[in-house]
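I hope you will forgive my troubling you with a question about protein structure. I should value your view on which stretches of the chain appear to form regular backbone elements. Here, with my thanks, is the record as I have it:
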Amino acid sequence: MSRRIIEPSEAKSVVWRQVKPGGGSGLAVVPGQAPPAEVAELKQRIAELERLRQTEVAQARQAALEQGTRQAREQAAAEVKTSADRLAQTLADLANFKRKLRAEAEMELLNLSLAIARRILYRELSTDSEAMHGVVHAALQKIQKREILKVRAFPAGVDAIRAALQRMGIGSIEVVGDPSLRTGDLLIDTATGELDASIDTQLQEIQRGFADRIGAR
């Protein structure tokens, strides 16, 4: 029995016929090939899935865009608030520094003015004994004249102080020179204690008064 190998080009499709019950013959169906209705339905389903995928992708992109925009706004708002807080703190620091600088400048000016006044007063005392009149007058404004028991002063200023008291109508008050006192020193003994009316003491009181005003601003 001889055999021959068929070449692929010679092979033909075998068509199987579907036999209906009762011996009748039907249409031929090629194996591996779906009916046209099923193909159309499958294509329609694929198209629907593709549209659904595109819709989901678009929705995901929109949601991501909205979330990114919201986060960007929140971050920008936080950065703006941080910058505003820093600016407010910087302005407050500048205002405090300005007040501090002004207070320091005023204190320096006050100290300079008092230093000049002190030099002028001591120079006046060394050249004009009448300069003690203003010192005595300022000191007696703080107390009642009837409370004065005795006045102690630097020896070189005793005569000027006596003359000043006489001008004020209280020349009967005892004035003694104290060698331990320096030029410009003036101590007043009263019934309630001792009052230091020296030039340095009065200038220090003036300085404290101005310093309190400067610090209260």
